[in-house]
Predict the 3D structure of the following.
Amino acid sequence: MKKIRIYLKKLYAFLRQMPDWIWLIPILILAANVRLTYLTKADIWHDEGYTAAIIQQPIREIITITTTDVHPPLYYVIMHVWQSIFGNSVASLRGFSVTCGVLTIALLFLLLQKLFSKRIAVFGSFLAALGPFLIRYSDEARMYALAALLAVAMIYAFVVAVERKNKKFWWTLYGILVALGLYTQYFLALVLPAHFAYIWLKLGENHTAIKN
């Protein structure tokens, strides 16, 4: 029993010394594998068919069409370029969402590590890699996986902008990501009130600290 404890302590010490990105690699492999497994199992459904049709149009026409659509044009414009490179097969159409889904896991790991700890980052990104909701929309030729990626990117840029001294770059990046997000999915506007509330609370804390 004593030898086992010594071995476990050495193993724990070894794992703690490992670079952070080592933890992320198996999680990303898992996330990609799960998403690719179900990539072509379901047939193209109505909304995906709409995506496949609209991205065949010239970019100017895509923008014109989306002025009367409930969704902004950015996803369709990106997919127009994507399908011109990778083709318009089912796997190709959904492949962009898979890419966004895996990148979301990677960015979520960095965000959780920055906000909390490496342990929480590993656990949280592992759960996200296997989350049915995220898997479902990572295997769909629609804008929701891209919206999730941009939402996490917005939060990450916001957190860094608030904390860093070199704020200009990160606030500029944050503004760009917000614009990209709103041109992808209007519902991403719901993320912004939380950011404003955080700044308001932060200013309140600073004001209290100055008074004291």
User: Anything to note?
Assistant: The radius of gyration is 21 Å. Residues 37 and 139 are 9 Å apart (CA to CA). The mean pLDDT is 89. The chain is about 80% helix and 0% strand.
